[in-house]
Design brief:
This protein is an alpha+beta fold and 538 residues long. The protein contains 21 helices and 7 strands. The strands form 2 sheets. Strands 4-3-2-1-5 form a 5-stranded antiparallel beta sheet. A two-stranded antiparallel ribbon has the order 6-7. β3 and β4 form a beta hairpin. The N and C termini lie far apart (110 Å).
């Protein structure tokens, strides 16, 4: 008997939970049916607002379909459906559940028309509905939408959402959305002043945009408060803008470091003006393209590892090409810098034409792995993942190269040859092979630089041409052959470039930097960090 009573009680509770739901669905269907009799856009807008006022997530389907122009009325019975084109007819879906309801000829149904004003109303309505989503990201998006498109009708739904919100960060965004809606309502002046203070604390450009419109449409204390808040936000944004420029400069500096660090070795140790250095960068980028093509066609699941696979291959391809160039051409031209410049310039043209012949003259597609896609914000500072990873990679390459130069026997031999070639040769160091391996190392590093640059620049036969002049500027400014000088020079020139660009433009900014470097070299001919040694100082 006790068991029967328990089962009966459970059934009653279950019925109690189901009945309101069924009643709610019936009520929603009555409201949706009003679309069939809505004669104009204001009447359709009234139905949209009535559906939004229900707060039921089920109305997202018909509202989204209406915004997309896929909500229809069947002429035979005036029922409303979501429609999808299917051949010559329209597949009909239930407006609330999405269940199939057969097909209809286009002549048997009427599309419910919308205009841009209605689309904005629907967008705001959908934003209000998503306030109750279980996903915090959806609630954040809804709060952001309502902040950017404030409406006095949003105040009550947002108040309810704030009362139910358990995530502090989402709650703060909801409070800002409520403040924005208060500013366009007829609430008392005290409420609007409190709303301005809250929006001022947000401190971003969206806040400035909103407060600017409030300033233009208000008077008295509200107008004065909006003006003061705009001034405070703009002063804060100016500091963030300076920080953004510094980040852009560091990002550019990491690119310059990758492009120049190999040149610093070959130019410093060998005294060779290698105009084909940019083409080594290009070969690394094209190696990345080939690796990704193979992975796309044969092993698509490994795409996120494509750059990791491409790095050693790019190093080997560029290093081998560099070794061939040194053994086949440059070793006959040591001590004749003008001839090496002309010879390597010819090699660069040959390599460019070879790549055009093999891959074509157009840009090639090199994709970003998922871990290098997207961005994130630190305050008002926007940071993209690909630029951040390139910075980390550039510093990693620098650290490894510094270790090789300072802590390995080969690095010791390279430094000995740099300091005094004749003395190093008399001590048994095979300087020709040091030259060959050094040139190969510098070329290989340029190749892995190409892997990184393929993520932020067009992969084309002209890729290296855009970096060769900047690389020479970095090497000369930092001190020929000095790795620390290359590091400081790359980041210094990157930051200076980014601060000059807003005032002088990209091209004129580079010209100004070049002039400044020329003036600097007049005072310090050996750059920031000059190498020491008898042959260097001779």
């Amino acid at each position: 008997m006790i068991l029967i009573r328990a089962i009966g009680l459970m059934l009653l509770l279950l019925l109690g939970t189901l009945l309101p739901s069924n009643a709610s669905e019936a009520d929603l269907r009555v409201v949706i049916a009003k679309f069939a009799t809505a004669a104009n856009f204001p009447a359709i807008e009234a139905v949209v607002r009535e559906l939004a006022a229900s707060g039921d997530p089920a109305v997202e389907r018909p509202l989204a379909a209406l915004a997309e122009g896929s909500l229809y009325v069947r002429k035979a019975d005036s029922l409303v459906f979501v429609g999808k084109e299917s051949g010559d007819g329209i597949e009909l879906l239930d407006a609330l559940t999405g269940e199939g309801s057969g097909e209809a000829a286009k002549a048997d149904i009427t599309k419910i028309k919308v205009n841009n004003t209605l689309r904005r109303v629907i967008r705001d309505a959908l934003g209000t509905l998503t306030l109750g989503s279980k996903d915090p990201a959806v609630r954040i998006a809804a709060a952001d939408t309502m902040f950017k498109t404030p409406d006095a009708a949003n105040i009550e739904p947002v108040d309810t959402a704030i009362a139910n919100e358990s995530v502090a960060s989402v709650k703060a965004l909801l409070e800002q959305a409520r403040a924005a809606s208060i500013l366009v309502s007829d609430r008392p002046e005290a409420d609007k002043l409190a709303a301005i203070a809250l929006i001022s604390a947000r401190g971003d450009r969206d806040a400035v945009s909103l407060l600017t419109s409030v300033e233009a449409s208000s008077e008295g204390a509200v107008k004065d408060a909006a003006t003061a808040a705009i001034a405070d936000i703009n002063s804060t944004l100016a500091l963030w803008d300076a920080g953004q420029n510094i980040w852009y400069g560091i990002s550019l500096g990491s690119v310059l470091l990758l492009a120049a660090i190999g040149l610093a070795i070959t130019f410093g140790v060998m005294g060779v003006i290698n105009m084909a250095h940019g083409e080594m960068v290009m070969l690394g980028a094209y190696t990345t393209f080939v690796v990704q093509e193979v992975i796309r066609n044969s092993f698509p699941g490994l795409f996120d590892w494509s750059l990791v696979i491409a790095l050693p291959l790019a190093f080997l391809v560029a290093a081998l090409v560099g070794l061939v160039i040194e053994r086949g051409l440059i070793r006959y031209l040591y001590g004749r810098p003008l001839e090496t410049l002309l010879a390597t310039w010819g090699v660069s043209l040959i390599l460019q034409q070879a790549v055009r012949t093999i891959f074509g003259p157009t840009n090639q597609e090199v994709g970003n792995p998922s871990w290098m896609s997207g961005s994130f914000n630190i305050g008002q500072l926007a940071v993209t993942w690909n630029r951040l990873w390139i910075l980390v990679f550039a510093l990693g390459v620098f650290a490894v190269l510094l270790y090789v130069m300072k802590r390995t026997p080969w690095g010791l031999q390279m430094r000995a040859v740099t300091a005094n070639r004749r003395m190093a040769a008399s001590m048994g160091i095979r300087t020709p092979w040091v030259d060959a391996l050094t040139f190969a190392l510098g070329s290989g590093i340029a190749g892995i630089a190409g892997v990184a640059l393929s993520q932020i620049d067009n992969v084309s036969p002209n890729l290296g041409r855009g970096y060769i002049i900047d690389s020479f500027m970095v090497v000369v400014f930092g001190g020929v052959g000095n790795l620390w000088g290359t590091l400081v020079g790359a980041f210094s020139l990157g930051i200076v470039n980014k601060f000059l660009e807003p005032y002088a433009g990209a091209v004129l900014g580079k010209i100004v930097v070049l002039v400044l470097i020329i003036l600097f070299i007049q005072k310090r001919p050996r750059g920031l960090f000059a190498l020491k040694g008898r042959s260097v100082e001779a």
